Amino acid sequence: NTEPAKLLLIGYLSYMLIGFALLSLPFAQATPVAALDALFIATSAVSTTGLVTVDPGTSFTFFGELVVLLLIQIGGLGYMTIGSFAVLALQDNLGKMRARTCRAAFNLPEDISPKLFLRSVVIFTLICEAIGAAILYPKFAAAGVDNPLWAAIFHAVSAFCTAGFSLFSSSLEAFRGDFTVNATISALSIFGAMGFLIIVDLWRTLMGRQRNLGFTSKVIFRLTMLFLILGTAVVMVTDPGIIALPAEERIMTAFFQVMTAATTVGFNTYPISELSMAVLLVVMFLMVIGASPAGTGGGLKTTSFAVLIGLVRSTLKGRDEVRFFKRRVRFEQLQTATASLVFYLGLMVAALFCLLLTEPALDFAALLFEALSAMGTVGLSMGATGELSPLGKVVIIVLMTAGRVGILTFGIALASRDESREEERDNELVM
Amino acid sequence: NTEPAKLLLIGYLSYMLIGFALLSLPFAQATPVAALDALFIATSAVSTTGLVTVDPGTSFTFFGELVVLLLIQIGGLGYMTIGSFAVLALQDNLGKMRARTCRAAFNLPEDISPKLFLRSVVIFTLICEAIGAAILYPKFAAAGVDNPLWAAIFHAVSAFCTAGFSLFSSSLEAFRGDFTVNATISALSIFGAMGFLIIVDLWRTLMGRQRNLGFTSKVIFRLTMLFLILGTAVVMVTDPGIIALPAEERIMTAFFQVMTAATTVGFNTYPISELSMAVLLVVMFLMVIGASPAGTGGGLKTTSFAVLIGLVRSTLKGRDEVRFFKRRVRFEQLQTATASLVFYLGLMVAALFCLLLTEPALDFAALLFEALSAMGTVGLSMGATGELSPLGKVVIIVLMTAGRVGILTFGIALASRDESREEERDNELVM
Ligand SMILES: [K+]
Ligand SMILES: [K+]
User: Fold this and answer.
1) Distance from CA of B301 to the nearest CA of A (A)
2) Helix, strand, or coil here: B381?
3) Do B430 and A109 touch (CB under 8 A)?
4) Chain A residue with minimal CA distance to B212?
5) What pLDDT digit, counting tens, does each position of B217-233 carry?
6) Distance of alpha carbon A56 from the chain centroid
7) Would you call A420 an interface residue with chain B, using a CB distance cutoff of 8 Å?
8) Is B28 within 8 Å of B67 (Cβ atoms)?
């Protein structure tokens, strides 16, 4: 059934167009912004990517920045959540169809009511963002930032929604050595990226409704921790620039750059283009894996990664079934994970081919990094974004949209209906 | 069962070590060759890759070149074929165990006797190589090549075994405009890369034992044709350097560079490093897909690619089963294809990470290209091979070995036995 996928895609496209229209208004712009750049920023915000062709901190008025922030919040929570919550507030009841779509979108277990779930999600989000902003405000004020309260709110929302949009032209590089800012942004990003499912699960465990964390939550939690710890260790010992930092900044800088890729938030405290290529490969790997399902982040998702690793291990060890963490993996899960990976790779090769044609002057590694960053809705860049030609911007816009809607959902939404149903006999493909 | 995989790996490693020992002999070397370079060349020959750290045409004596040629022939036919054929010649009968291993290695249909198959393969190979050498000889003689008969034999064997080793320091660039050389090398490479299965199938069809080509042969044949035609068209219209060539050389040059990647033979008639990055991406894509199972080429294999495309199409269209070419794909085939892809990607990321650390002075694209070329046993290079540090050479040696043994077989050979058999209850992974 391709209907829900089409609806989701159309929903996001609508928000992008509304955002584009609002950002095109003269009183949204502090300096003239080209139409394609306004569309780029709107797409980047709704998809919570954070790639920017113009500096949002100087190009937009307060109204423009507010539009960007609202687009981020809408994109981060998912337009489904927002829409459902609005309905909830009005009539205290979800339509049956809407409840079903919501259940499908969040992979909600059968015994949790969508109504309760949505309300909890929105309340939890606002509380997290408020706490984050309250911690960031004195820090930004002390650093002499313009309008520190607004900057604190903007960065807290941008972190929890894993958008990575910053009002500062060099992202958070000025706060590289500030533990409080590092910890606050990281905590918000990790909470957002781990996903609502884990939050619900944690909440149910805390409320005594279940004894242990569910299997999915365990997998997500363990993989996220593994990536963060292993990644930080690798970056700390291999990158010459980070090795040269003062001891106390070294671990924090390594952790932040790994965290920003793994959660797909996309802020940075160190200039990305100055990282060594080996570390950039680690960052690219993390950007491909991405965050967790039903979270605000992008990428292939940690659960897909878990299934694929389980598949390889089981195949190499000659098991007669695919297992992971001692559990059997269902065929449909394998199919979803594999199809996502293959479609991701296909879209990546096609997009990269287009970018190499439209941007002959740019470096291969920078373009690959840019495409992976867009598809994973990460927003880190080796510096290609500002140099893109109009056609290159269009390619990145498509990738950010696909990344936000979900790689596979994007494909399903674009796929034609299945028309050939007949099957032939000689079906033995020898590999 | 990991035994056959281990045997295969040990078999190839034995041939590599024998080759290394022979190439280390003083009368094999025309100019001094370091031990690591001798091992590199031996591995490159047995794996039919063709990457070289020293120029084989000037570094080795005739004896050394003969050793390289024998290693190529052994690697191309597979040590199993050679070994089985030796037994056949001695006792006109295959041991039961050997017959089973051979059947497994070539995915031989039940109704074809391994004995007949092996004999046909070797005879067919020698006939093809002899015809190829006979056509190349007058061309090489006319071009004033040293010892043209030897050069003709060497290049014919190197082409059919998709090894791509050349006695000329600039591969076949001197023959870019020569139709006969282009056609002969291409035909030999395509025959070798399509694989013995297709040859058996064609032979049975021609002998009237079956009405049509089998499904596997059809898939391999159609995909190979598709890649060659589509690839040539794309390269012809996008690469500025090839567009600038005289009209008659343009199509031939585009075709040859696509053919060399798709068959994984690795000769070139145009300097690879002068191709545009967009075309290099096409070449990389073809090198990843690779040739066909049971052929002499490397890569993921066209059949795996077919299965994965079938999986994506079926998933996007919401089919309840995975189909391709209107046939249902079996679960084990999906598992093999997916595990190969994921293991390939994992090994690639690990190898690239090592190369980026050991070769900080080399370009990211050149190293990625080099690693893909080694893993696919292709042998094309953007120029990194000669610049590699000793550790970098070791990484490439490992990749060439994995590529020849087969990505998945390599993993199975290295995997430990499966020890945990218990399974837990809570096995619902929500994606
Ligand atoms: K982001
Ligand atoms: K080769």
Assistant:
1) 8
2) coil
3) yes
4) A426
5) 788 888 889 999 999 99
6) 19
7) yes
8) yes
The answer to whether residue A428 is domain-embedded is no
pLDDT tens digits for B114-165? 677 777 778 888 999 999 999 999 999 999 998 999 999 999 999 999 999 9
Whether pLDDT at A30 is above 80: yes
CB contact under 8 A, A418 and B318: yes
C-beta of residue A380 within 8 angstroms of C-beta of residue A268? yes
Give which of B294, B174, A249, B16 is closest to B302, Cα–Cα: B294
Higher pLDDT, A407 or A279: A279
CA of A49 to the centre of ligand 1 (A): 4
- Whether A426 is in a domain gets the answer no
What ipTM is given for this predicted complex? Answer: 0.89
- Residue-level pLDDT at A220: 81
Q: Measured in angstroms, how far is the CA atom of residue B183 from the centroid of ligand 1? A: 51
Domain that holds residue B44: 3-413
Total structural domains within chain B? 1
Q: Which of residues 330-389 of A touch B (CB under 8 A)?
A: 331, 333-339, 341-343, 346, 349, 352-353, 356-357, 360, 364-365
CA B261–ligand 2 middle distance (angstroms): 9
Q: Assess if residue B219 is contained within a domain.
A: yes
Which residues, including other chains, have CB under 8 Å from residue B173's CB and lie 6 or more apart?
B268, B269, B270, B271
The bridge status of strand B327-328 relative to strand A323-324 is unpaired
DSSP string over B55-89 = -HHHHB-HHHHHHHHHHHHHHHH-HHHHHHHHHHH
The answer as to whether B418 is a domain residue is no
